[in-house]
Amino acid sequence: MRVRLAVQAITGAVSFQDGGRRGYQRQGLSGSGPMDRLALAAANALVGNRPETVAIEFGLGGGRFRLEGGDAWLALAGAPCALRIDGAPVPDHRAVLLCAGASLVIEAPRRGVFAYLAVAGGFDVPCVLGSAALHQRAGLGGFDGRGLRAGDALAVASATEDGPRSPEIPGSLDPLPLDTEAPVRVVLGPQADRFASDALALFTDAAFTVSHRADRMGIQLDGPALAHGSDGYNIVSDATVMGSVQVPGSGRPIVLMADRQTTGGYPKIATVVSADLRRVAQRRPGEALRFRAIPLGDAFALAREHAALLGALPGAARAHATASGDRLAGANLAGAAVDAFADPLSEEP
User: Fold this and answer.
1) How many Å from the N-terminal Cα to the C-terminal Cα in the chain?
2) Which one of 33, 210, 223, 232 has the largest count of C-beta atoms within 10 Å of its C-beta?
3) Cβ count near 314 (within 10 Å)
4) So what's the pLDDT on residue 53?
5) pLDDT of res. 187
């Protein structure tokens, strides 16, 4: 019998995500993938997986699950969520052993938006165009082209009833900093010259708030309108990247994210540096967001710094935190902080 994680209830936006699709933007398909790449990498590191291994992404939600057919190691990282196994609380950012028949409850995050549940060996999910990541608008990837819902049975790739795959790098990590207070760093352009003379100053001086219309396609912002120049708000459509800050006719900025369109006809006032994309993604509706412009050279330096941190992602302690139906034993856990993440294979800048 295959080891499966049975979905009993789901709240919020919950889907399979991995490192995303690469090489299809010229055909009009954006990469999708995680909204918070650091959190995905951290969850996978805790159970010995590669950073981009497919995991479950929770967006302002949670779920109730039951493990069937055997045991499996798992870990939750990202936005802090209450996690319980058979009613007993378990810390996030730890590797734990979920035993056959045990129930797992993940509540909506207390802060932030996105959290990631990884299992040792990953989930057995078909790849579409090289990735299992759900791109909801395209109906590709995920669980039969959709997000997860009650009644789904999620196969664990390398676990069998003979025993769970033992993680090579189990242990713990310090909770990931959300850092939602500092300004989000951007590089101005590529169409910054299409805005009125005072719009750039307003863009970096004003406080915006995350709209309730924010989703995986784009983080829409409420706040002061940014005035376009005399040429108006239409341009010949050109390429977008994750982090492009489009400004449509309303003057309200939109930070394009993982499921964005690959081209757009609104001018882009700036681009969020890759190192700060997770800080945009983890801001909840109603929370404030400010921008700070930095030189292009500084953005490249930040990207290199984050790529180096990914390569040095700590394996954490060799100790395990074990959870079963009637007992939790968790001691001798040592951890190390992971402060940032950048994917050196990404198509994004």
Assistant:
1) 44
2) 33
3) 19
4) 95
5) 98
- Is residue 233 within 8 A of residue 247, CB to CB? The reply is yes
What pLDDT shows up at residue 330? 37
Residues 6 or more apart whose CB falls under 8 angstroms from that of 280 comprise 184, 219, 243, 255, 257, 272, 289
Residue 73 burial (CB count, 10 A): 26
Q: What are phi and psi of 155, to 5 degrees?
A: -75, 135
Domains of the chain plus CATH, in order, are: 2-178+309-336 (no CATH), 184-296 (2.40.100.10)
Amino acid at 52: E
Q: pLDDT of 90-116, one tens digit each?
A: 988 899 999 999 999 999 999 999 999
Is the link from the previous residue into 190 a cis peptide, with omega within 30 of 0?
yes
Q: What is the pTM of this model?
A: 0.87
Alpha helices in 235-295 (DSSP H): 277-281
The parts of the chain modelled with pLDDT lower than 50 are: 161-162, 170, 315-349
Residue 269 · residue 252 · CB < 8 Å? no
Buried b (16+ CB within 10 A) or exposed e, 74-111: bbbbbbbbebebbeeebbbbbbbbbbbebbbbbbbbee
